[in-house]
Specification:
Length: 135
Amino acid sequence: MEFVDMYRLPKDPDRVKANVFHNDCPARFLLSKIAGKWSMLVIDALDGAPKRNGELMRKIEGISQKMLTQTLKELEEMQIVVRQDMQTVPPHVEYQLTPLGNDLRERICALDRWVETNMIHLIAGHRSIPLVTLD
């Protein structure tokens, strides 16, 4: 995906027309960040109660510490996640979805559950998925 150097928006919010199909619209950039594999899994994993870093690492198999940290920072910048530092020694930090994040999570969870429900149909005859059938 090609990004422009700077996005230009009217000062009047009522004149802003978001369109993910336009390359020069920030909505496309935001969609690319939200729709990334790790972002979607982190948002799904933040279900209700605040979660610590280690809890997220255990729940999301395969994510590296670096990717988790980067993803959480990006989600925090978009005001989807809030980071709460308890100011203790040893450090205790928790992450929780904002109201905007909870709204997004409902939509992401619907997609995640749809994929899980339809997995067999989706992979049937799909030659590019490395798959071994076990007895």
